[in-house]
Amino acid sequence: MKATPPRLLAVAAIAAALGLLAAQVWWRTPAHTPASGSAAPTGIVAARRGDPAPALRLPTLDGGTLTLAQFRGRPLLVNVWASWCEPCVREMPELDRLARAPPAGDLQVLGIALDRPEDVRAFLQRIPIAYPIALETPGPADASVRLGDTQGLLPYSVLIDANGRIVRQKLGPFAPGEAERWAQLP
């Protein structure tokens, strides 16, 4: 068996690196990535900072319903997640600590699971949490989109003040310790 000349190996490595670079440039062009703040589907209003929170009415695992309006009067951190979303799962213990012992004493936490009820039920059997969970079917007009997540990525969090106005929106997971600082009203 003949050894591969070092020059040929160097050329192959450079070609592979250029190929990866070209793929990244192609993927990051506007035609292939959603624009920041891109619009929600036609007819759907995606909330923005300063807007009133949308009038969501969502089912719960026990067959009841939750509305955002029932949380009025105290600040509310809404976290949209799914059982298959690893970053969502990693941040849940911190959100659970916030729900059990809010830093300001009056913060509420609500989870909205974009998942199948049976998957949420199984997940909560393994990892119980203290805050209420509402259910939503993922789609172009789901609760996450109406709360302002026009990119459709998880986790997605929203801070709603006591008067029902959106004061913060966050796409992506919280870093350790970030949720507590983020949840304090400006």
From TrEMBL:
It holds the Pfam family Redoxin. One of its GO terms (biological process) is cytochrome complex assembly. Keywords: Cytochrome c-type biogenesis, Redox-active center. GO terms for molecular function: disulfide oxidoreductase activity. One of its GO terms (cellular component) is cell envelope. It is found in: Cell envelope. The keyword Transferase does not apply. The keyword Ligase does not apply. PROSITE patterns: THIOREDOXIN_1, THIOREDOXIN_2. Residues 47-186 form the Thioredoxin domain. InterPro entries: Redoxin, Thioredoxin-like_sf, Thioredoxin_CS, Thioredoxin_domain, Thioredoxin_ResA/DsbE_sf. It comes from the Bacteria. This is Redoxin protein. It comes from Xanthomonas graminis pv. phlei. The lineage of its organism: Bacteria, Pseudomonadati, Pseudomonadota, Gammaproteobacteria, Lysobacterales.
